C-alpha cells in the first residue's frame, strides 16, 4: 500500500498554514528573527537581540502545534488511506465503515466481494471543500490503482486503474463520512 502526496485545493487561511504547512510558518518567523539579529549586530542595541528570542522559539513551536492539529483535509486523507488499506486486505466491513449513507454502503458491500484485491494505491488526490455548505462537504477526486482477481475465478491478478470521485460530509460529531462515490475509467466516461 502506498499513498501519494495529495494536491490539496482550498482557500489558504492562517489556520491551514499553521496546521498543514509548518515549514512555511517557520520560514516567515525565521525571517523576522534574522532581521532582528541583523539589526542588533549593526546597531549594538540588545533590545533587538532580545526581541529575536520569541521568534526563534516559535520555529520549533510551529512544528509542535502542526503535529497536534488534525484539519478536515487531514481527516479526509486519513480516511482514504485507512479505506485503501482495508480494501487491499479484503476487509469489506472496515472498508465501508467510512460510508455514512446506508444505500451507498449497501452498494459498496455488493460490489467489493466480487473481487479479491492484492494491491491498492491512491494517488493524484485532489480535495475540494464545498464553500458555504452546511453541513460541511468535500469532493475528493483521486486515481485508484489496484491489482485484483475475480472472486469466482475468471480473471486473475489484473492491474486496473480507475478515477474515483467521493463526496464527503461532516457529521455533527465532527467525523467525515462518505455519502456517495463514483468510479470510472481514467479517460472519462460514466460509471458507478
Provide tags for this entry.
192 residues, alpha/beta, Nuclear Transport Factor 2, Chain: A, 2 domains, 6-stranded mixed β-sheet, 6 helices, elongated, disordered N terminus
Give a description of the structure.
The chain is α/β, with parallel strands linked by helices. It has two domains: 14-68; 71-185, Nuclear Transport Factor 2, Chain: A (Roll). The protein is 44% helix and 30% strand. The chain has helices spanning 14-20, 22-43, 46-68, 72-88, 92-96, 102-111, and strands spanning 2-3, 7-9, 115-130, 137-150, 158-170, 176-185. A hairpin with a 5-residue loop joins strand 5 and strand 6 (176-185). The two termini are 23 Å apart.
Major sheet = 6 strands, mixed
Tell me the total number of β-strands: 6
| CATH domain class of the largest domain | Alpha Beta
Our Rg estimate from Cα atoms comes to 23 Å
Shape designation = elongated
CATH fold description of the largest domain = Nuclear Transport Factor 2, Chain: A
Secondary-structure element order, as H and E? EEHHHHHHEEEE
Detail the poorly predicted runs: 1-11
CATH level-two architecture of the largest domain: Roll
Count of discrete domains: 2
Organism: Roseiconus nitratireducens
Transmembrane segments: 23-41, 48-66
Protein name: DUF4440 domain-containing protein
Keywords: Membrane, Transmembrane, Transmembrane helix
